[in-house]
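Lay summary

Proteins are chains of building blocks that fold into shapes. Our project writes down both the chain and a compact code for its shape. Here are two examples, one after the other.
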Amino acid sequence: MSPLSPLHLPLAPLRLLPLPPMQLLAPIKAGMAAGVRDAAGAVGRLVRPSQRGIWSYPGRYYIEVRGVHGIGGEQVARRVERAIEEHPRVRWARVNAPSERVVVAVGKPPPSEQDLVARIERAEGQEPVAPTEEFDEWAPEPRHPSGGAKEAQSLAVVAADVVGLSVATALRLTPWLKLPTEAAATLSIIQNHPRLRRLALAITRGQPTEAALPVLTALTQGLATRGGGLALDLVQRAALWREAEAEGRAWAAMEPQLVHGPQDVVAEPIVVERPGEPPKDTVERFAERSMAAGAAAGVLAAPFAGPRRGFAVAFSSVPKAPGAGREGFATSLGQFLALRGVLAMDRSSLRRLGQVDTVVLDEAALRGDRYEPIDLELLGGADPEPTAERLFDLFDPDEPLETRHDNGWVLGSLDRLELTGRTGQQTAARLRRRGSERVLGLARGTTLQAVVGLAPQTVPGAEAVAAAARRAGSRIVLATDRPHPTGFTFADAVVPAGHRLVASVRSLQADGAVVLLLSGNRRALGAADCGVGVHRGGEPPAWGAHLLVGADLESAGLIVDAVGVAARVDRESALLSAGGSAVGAV
């Protein structure tokens, strides 16, 4: 007999209710079960980090989805959406292909993450997925600010650095266990030489070596050296960790303002292939030349100083300063931008700023929705002062094309005015040739007194962006559909915008330019080497951009200004590395 059998619970009050007791307890049981499942999932992710990035917000999940780029990506996205929306507790699901995430709106209680991931995996594997586009270092796979597998790799490298420092400390007491320095040097050479690193990634098909090489290097340095390099690496990893945390906080704060429904999430795949070979990275070019010179010096020194001394001379040319300088600047810039609310959808774009030599400004991103008078031509000896006063009394920037009347004066479109005599069509044509986008007529009674040319107002901060591009020493290109744009005299060249903006960016890249684009055009932003996405309130975000600034053009100006600083950091870090290599060789 159970020890609880003598207890009798008073169920009489429950019998008065229309529902049986078990149905009353069902929601409580379901809630407790969901809580247990979520707790178990959290513990499981700590013990064994998931290979699929998952981020949750009250009422929404962001889950990594694969195979949505390239041929067949649209079909994969639709299958994933249908599979998830079949769940009874899912309200809607939309795939955001540029960030490789499916956004799932859920009810209460929410479904388990394991169930959603299982549905995604089944949908991805229903049909053979076509080969996706290859991502290179100039157009990398987007990394969502909410995090993912990359954070697990950083955690493993930090742990390896700590273990390596502990081992290096222990080896001071037991020096007979020390590995030869050449072992650490070999792995360091593979990690720092661009071509050798790409070869290792190609042999192992990328991910295993990308995750394991920093860990192996850290552990080997702990066994072979005194741990000085590990201390520097640990500082760098801590800075990366702080950058990721700042961007995660910025994403958590901005996400409710960006996503209000499925229409704000859905985005088609973007093309990331670059026309032709990308320009050689200055840091990589320096690394190859420095290590080639070091190898030659080591070979020449070996007959006189011995093979180990010759290898030490060659090892002294391994350039760590350029990468450390670039990472230090990028992590500081990333944290600063995150505090301003800039979302880094791809943090590697901050590491490429020093290579940018062309800044393309989309005129649509610099113009506002309101118009202002920019040109005025008087007709028939009209008095300038009262005419101008009447113009500004009648003009409304919020409704500039509406016809307005006041004391016998009329302001409106020429084709809506009742005129006798002059119609102003020839004058309007001249104003359009001079850059006016809209033309109004100002009449007194039925007599036309003046023709007014209008143009959109410049968004606050647009001048700061142009000035920053000039300070950075970059070529400034204006993308516009107007044949004679006015107000943008700072541009060095003009290219087509709108649906031809992607082709304009590709053409510049084919000529060898490294392009930073400020625009709201999703496809063009994905095609650029660094896309700064602009969107106004009420519009969907510019998914496909590497950096999302919203309507804050001042932050966009800071990013453009950082181009020149990043290039200077790359140059000075290379000089510092060259000096250190020379001292080390001696």
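And here is the second example, written the same way.
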Amino acid sequence: MTTKQDELVFLPLGGVGEIGMNAALYGFGPEKGRKWIMVDCGMGFAGEEAMPGVDLMFPDLSFIEERRKDLLGIFITHAHEDHIGAISELWPRLKVPVYATRFAKNLLETRRLGEPGAPKVELREVKPGKRVTVGPFELDFVPVSHSIPESNAIAIRTAAGLVVHTGDWKIDPTPVAGSVTSPEAFRALGDEGILALVCDSTNVVREGFSPSEAEVAQTMRKLIAEAPHRVAVTTFASNVARIRAVAEAAQACGREVIAVGRAMDRVIDVARECGYLDGLPDFRRSDSWKSLPREKVVALLTGSQGEPRAALARVSRRDHPDIQLAGGDRVIFSSRAIPGNERDVGAIINDLIEQGVEVITDRTELVHVSGHPRRDEMVEMYAWTRPGTAIPVHGEALHLDEHARFARAQGVQNVVKARNGSLVRLAPGKPEVISHVKAGRLFKDGNVLIDDKDRAIPERRKLAQAGLVSVAIAIDEDGVVLGEPAIDIIGLPNRGRTGEPLIEAVVDAVTDTLAGMSKGKLKDSEGVEKTVDRAVRTAVNEAWGKKPACHVQVVEV
């Protein structure tokens, strides 16, 4: 039973207006006593240029941290890092049960929760088709096709209505590993009456249907069978269907499979535990590479996104301890570069080509397919579900805007354009954004988390652009400068535009500034620091054309 005060709300804290860091809240009840569930808790990857020194980003969950006594659980749609990768870092702030299928649970335990110092997360295994009830919510995991096994949409039922959160999905009748997206299951939900469909937007700008994993498997079989020498395949470590396809292709032509990379090893172990690699022989260790004939081996390598410490990058630099390639060997990129990674991937490809290695990508062969739906697949989903409201998620602004137009073209009466922090009332009344809450990003900097207001990142950007000048000055209590100031320049060119050494320009600026100050002013340490800072930055700008960061310290003696 609902009361006049009961509301059903949707609140994304990550993954809406961006790719990655997926975290969505659903709340039910009166405003002051609302109970919440979270769907997914993922991370994103920071670019070195935009975020120097930072590898990982997480959604800011401070809104629900303040209400954690009312948070009933975290429900995982699937085991990709942009959906589970923040759990080990952020779960201690929430401390609620995490519900996931066996594959996601095992991979989470192996990949994130097996690290030293990881929290003891309360994980509860969910079987698709079995309903989970927590507080006022009833949740069904509905299997869908995606590029990792055991992916699910989640049907969320409350007294105010049914919401379907699709997660990541596609239509693939032959997925090689994992589930198919069942028209009957979604039609049944549509017949029940869907208040809102919260749906993946990633490939809404692409026409047609996504090719099947089975088509990729056929291509891999051909390319591996035809290769005259060694074959190395790089793909997302989590793509069990691709791993199986490579292994079956190798088996068909009498080749051994060697798996290389910790992430690959972890996924393979979990996939075997869950039965997704049944019927295939165990893979060999990387130290077997040199002992096997060139025409009898296939390597599965991590590093499809150009990660500098991953196996493929090390092979391309010729510094991997076990795996080396030679002219005539073949490398297959069974992946597509995520936006922002193109330069790193391109550098690896160029290094391999310079060594005489043949490189095959999805530009010339069907060696990769997306795990997200194109427009014709989305037409099917909307026809099955017939929602009263569409809320586009999982995409950048371009994808969300195009999805909104697409949903209206499918006859959906109400489309809500949400962003991270948008509090959407789904019921009662017309679904709409009713307010905005704090939403942002946290950055993993070394072993600490910092928020997007921390000064460290913008200061590092500035240092990367214009370097640093460091000045230390000793002044006694009478305002007398003692000795010569200690001056160093870091990250500046040796000489300015006229050929003058930049260090001399800095020394002259400091010396002239101090000489021009009275003893009274020299007694004011803070004033000296500000005056010298301005003089140094001005002098360097005149000589170089850039203003560096400047650190001036006055030591009072």
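What can we say about the second shape? Residues 525-544 form the longest helix (20 residues).
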